[in-house]
Amino acid sequence: MTETRHILSLSGGKDSAALAVYMRDRVPAxxxxxxxxxxxxxxxxxxxxxxxxxxxxxxxxxxxxxGFDKWLDVFxxxxxxxxxxxxxxxxxxxxxESYVGDGPVINYVGLRADEEREGFISKKGNIxxxxxxxxxxxxLTDVLRILEESGLGxxxxxxxxxxxxxxxxxxxxxKIEWVRLKETHPALFEQAKEYEYANKANGNPxxxxxxxxxxxxEKPERIxxxxxKWEKGRLKNKNSSKTLVHILGNGEGDDEFxxxxxxxxxx
Length: 267
Description:
Blueprint: E1 5-10, H1 14-23, E2 31-35, H2 42-55, E3 59-62, H3 68-74, H4 86-100, E4 105-108, E5 127-130, H5 132-135, H6 140-150, H7 175-184, H8 186-200, H9 214-217, H10 220-236, H11 244-249, H12 263-266
Parallel strand pairs: 1-2, 1-4, 2-3, 4-5
Helix pairs in contact: 1-6, 7-8
């Protein structure tokens, strides 16, 4: 009989990192894997390196057969969006199922007890998905405690206001996060902007941030407006219980899709 494998996919975010810490001594044979799109923030790689040192285990880096730029060509320059998540399917889910293979696997996902959304459940019959945090009733404060007690803390990209892991051009970013990306990693912002420009060549442009091109979003007067709106949201939600977007980003979050964000990318 084939032995069951235990696999925990890491996104580079706080929840999957906390779950890895939580499960380290509970499942000694756990396999840790990170699906690398090669479009990640530098802080993500730094966080994974620190987590790897804590676990004392190698985190496997999987890569898709074809990278983002190749698939962008295949899709005719159509960048992904919340309605066209080809990036998740081809750069994250497909490599995961390829790594898993056909033997029996238990897949550990870091969704918490205070989250209503569902995680990715593979259609492959050999994969069983489990949610230890939900089963044990752990919520956001527990995740933050686990990370603090382990010495890992939160990913350093949270220090400049990024609320999620995932590609630097993730379409689930708030507008304030795009502003902060420009201020912190201007070269990455310019690359994201170039991907938008590429779409204009085929007469059917698509933008990362809804219907607003990054070239418009980065204008000084627009940046000022976004920051003012964010500050109002921060003051409004300062003493209320909100999602991670509000806790870390302190924004209003009314123009984003936090509840629909891809779990394999950011949990």
